[in-house]
Amino acid sequence: MTGRTHPSAIRRFGIGLVTLALAATACTSGGAETQSNSTDPAVDVDSAALTITPETGTEAIAPNTPITVNAENGTISDVKVDQVVADEAATEGDDAPLYEMTGTLNGDGTEWVSDWNLKPGAEVTVTATAENEAGETTELVQEFTTEAAVPGRRLELTHNFPTTGQTVGVGMPIIIGFDMPVTNKAQVENSIKVVSEQGVAGSWRWPDDKTAAFRPEEYWDPYQQISVELHLAGVEASEGVYGVSDHKIDFEVGRELIVTMNVPDHEAVVTVDGEHERTIPVSNGKAARNFDTTSSGVHVLMERYEHLTMDSSTVGIPEGTPGSYKVDVQYAVRTSNSGEFFHEASYNGNIGSANTSNGCTNMRMDDAKWFFDNTLMGDVVDTTGTARVKEWYNGWGYWQLSWDEWLSESATGEPQLTDGSGTPGSVHGEQ
């Protein structure tokens, strides 16, 4: 199945999504029961017949095996999947309801395929119901178990940006860090569903084997809610390594704040929702060498510190060597991983008139505090006028790549639409 099937061609079913008024039947695992709802004795049609794979009694199947339900002489009206894990606490993530299995029904209602993978180490019960033309219902129940994710082979999250509850700027990427290398990147990408109020095209890219980053084609529209559903339970990240927990991240995109800075002008111009907000006198890198040249390109604001000791030894210039420094600053906001910050530099008498910093953007105290208090993680700084170009992998320099360049390195090779229609491919393994 694909999450991009046209809505008119599919119906989705899951736990609690469809309720049927069925008469009670004595049904056993692997057996089908038929209940007639017809009152016309002249009606003589074949009962609906159901099949479910995996078959009942199957043990220790791979968690990324799809559940498939097929009906003959009728249409599928309900599918419920119950999963019980002995050590439930070890598999519950941030949002247990994500474990409620949904599926995609084909256009004529005769085949249902699970959307997501199964919990590792689970006892699984699948209950399917179908109805024939006469209104007779048939129910089939099958049970099987899934392979456990053994210690040392369980994929877990190490970090994510943003976090639930945060308000971020329009340039904010979604970054997911894993504790183990991921080789089956397409399956993992397809297991993470991004939904925004303003649906757009976006895509994942992997800065390294343990980090996945998502950005839309253009900046996010401001003032909207975004959710990230990580259906990681059962995904096979690499051979024999399975995700064990689902997670959900809910964050908000705030107003659109853009900083434009042409370095030779010694000023940074701030706009909010397209309107001029503030012009800040600055002093940028003196450009005696590449390191102390402020980089040109699209920067995204990252972490921030009220107080920070800036030490050149942390960026490869040891104490006592030419160009080394160690200075305490206030109101520091990071723009790269190579040491660039917007920060207070009361010691710099050239703010607004000359570029004499070690590559950072120096501000006076009042402007630095304003910048610190009024910007968000994910706000955009567009810098021009220097010979040093920001690398796309330096911090969150993802907007340095065109959309086509960004999309070309997605493992799926296709964009993910954030309108809720789903991910571009299957989360399941090869069958």
TrEMBL record:
The lineage of its organism: Bacteria, Bacillati, Actinomycetota, Actinomycetes, Streptosporangiales. Pfam families: Big_10, YkuD. Pathway: Cell wall biogenesis; peptidoglycan biosynthesis. Residues 411-431 are annotated as: Disordered. Residues 411-421 have a biased composition (Polar residues). This is Ig-like domain-containing protein. It comes from the Bacteria. Residues 257-384 form the L,D-TPase catalytic domain. The active site is at H343 (proton donor/acceptor), C360 (nucleophile). SUPFAM superfamilies: L,D-transpeptidase catalytic domain-like. It comes from Nocardiopsis lambiniae. Residues 1-23 form the signal peptide. Keywords: Acyltransferase, Cell shape, Cell wall biogenesis/degradation, Peptidoglycan synthesis, Signal, Transferase.
